[in-house]
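Contributing new records

If you add data, match the layout below exactly. Sequence lines come first and carry their own label; structure lines follow with theirs. Keep one chain per record. Anything else will be rejected by the validation script.
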Amino acid sequence: MPPFLLVLLALGLPVSLASASVESLIERANTLKLSDSREWHRTVQYEPKKWGGFESLADDPRYFMSEDGATNPQAELEATIRAFYQPVIEDHLKREVITIRENPSQELLEEEAKLPQHPICQFPARLNLLKSVLNWDGADLPKISCNRFKHFKDRLSPGGVSLVFSSFFLGSPSSTFGHTLLRIHNSGLPTTQVAGQTTRSELLDTGVNYAANPTVTNPILYAFFGLAGLFPGTFTAVPYYLKVREYNDHESRDLWSYRLNLSPQEVERLVELLWEVGSTHYDYYYFTENCATQMLNILDAAAPRLNLRAQIPYYVIPSATVHALFAQPGLVLERGYRPSVRREFYHRYGNLKPQQIQALDALIERKPTDQALAPLTDTEKVETLDTWSDYIEFIHGDAIKKEQSDALILKRESLVERSKIRLKSAPLGMPQPELEAPERAHGVRRFQLSSGYSDRFKGFVSIDWRFAMHDMTDATPGYPLNTQVEFFTVKGTVYWDRPNFELEQLRIFAIQSLTPINRFEKPKSYVADLRYIRTTDADYTGNQRSGRAEMNVGGGYTIPILSDRYAVGAMGEIAAQYSAQFLGSNVRLAAGPRAYALLNFSHHWKWLMEYKPEWRLLSSSSYHWTASTEMKYSFGKSFATSANYLHSRQEERSSLAIQWYF
């Protein structure tokens, strides 16, 4: 007799009844066309393929019960129903006890990972969907206690959900566009009354993160691997305070939290789905299958009434997830804000009195603490020590993570000194920076129509389309000041005296940061630009317009004028250029300084001026220069108009443009 039938008999189930139950469930599911339903597709993460059919986003074969389950929703549904009736074996039971032991050893955890998991315990979301749709209680299923899932759910103690956006961070290629994660509210946390309002600490909530597991650190290779889907992506659930520590403290990134209007049943289903996806992996694609995609997909699966993924295009920028939330009326209940330690420091510093600033300077210079704080009252000492502690945190964010580092020792010293004064610190009292809220940002895509005049080629009309997402003169709300992050911009032009359409520019990426220096930090300004561009150049045959590919990088410093809104700076730049039309060598090298001034008259009115002389090697024309300026005024989030002027050694041109952001 087959082992399956022996187990059924051992469980006390008549063989004919169990077999009939399986087939009757499959027949009922097929009658209801469950495999074609939105609920089933979202649960198993199926998406339509371009040429017909479906394919799941998951890339681990163990996530599917059918051999062709990744592309066949019907086969996966039937195989899943049958899998739930698989006999419970000893290895299934072993797997359900290791994780929930107190401090299991690494050897035990590795052993557990090799053990098979019973489908009833692996796929609670699938099982409960079938029970609901098929009006079935599952009483005839094999009996197994899914201890690991129960432990996971108890640890989360889900009482609500927030979507969290971590602001842009140009210090890491993986965070250039920001980052999105979920926060599962712990219903067991106590609440307190502050200023007449009920509050709770979110630090003991659970952060659910989806991210690539990179195998390279080089920014260029990272971009290539991310675009090609060569990194595995996984879900992880960790205490939320670890994410706060990572983003708020070590990377000085603000956290914006949006509490979602989900029912208790939808929150419960979200937890079940998170458990399921935690056992698989995905091919991580930088623009199409990233943290934003996965967060929206899993929210849509938990609450099929939502349609968040449809609110954004095929490619997804993490900040666009916030726009998708607000496109769903009534979904966002409230917005929370947790400032970075850098922002907290500058806020505290701005409230210090002159003698407190002198004391802080003395502490930073490592003078004896008693001597530095002597002239201050206890309240002033508390304020100064709190500011010093924040200073250590944001200036030495990386070093402080290392055990026994000088930064960590200094941080501990600041806390010891603070503990000597038995006064409670006053509330930070820092308002949310409303204009920096992600939902205030313009759309990441941009269409531009411009018209102008060239002294060499007369009138022209240009159109360009930008894939993502922001440049120096775009409206500031929702984006970091004085930064540029652009990917895939295409520009075409028609000149009146040569009426044929020309590809004038194809920009792969342009990343630029012009953060001004100050007395506490001296960040380097930098630029990296990879593009194809068609210009007039003395190094082309007949001094005509022709195209070249170029990679340009540079670094320098930016200096504020009165405030960060008005800044001037300079950087040295080098470039490698290629064109089959160059006279002599097809490759040339160029280098030179670039001077610039960026004036932010308001969040919507910007003026950028640049001057760039350039010396060339392997070129028939050894010297070139360009002066340019752009002034732009943005009308809210969707439209802008700009005036541009460029004067180079070979050409003078001006233009006016209108821009649409969406």
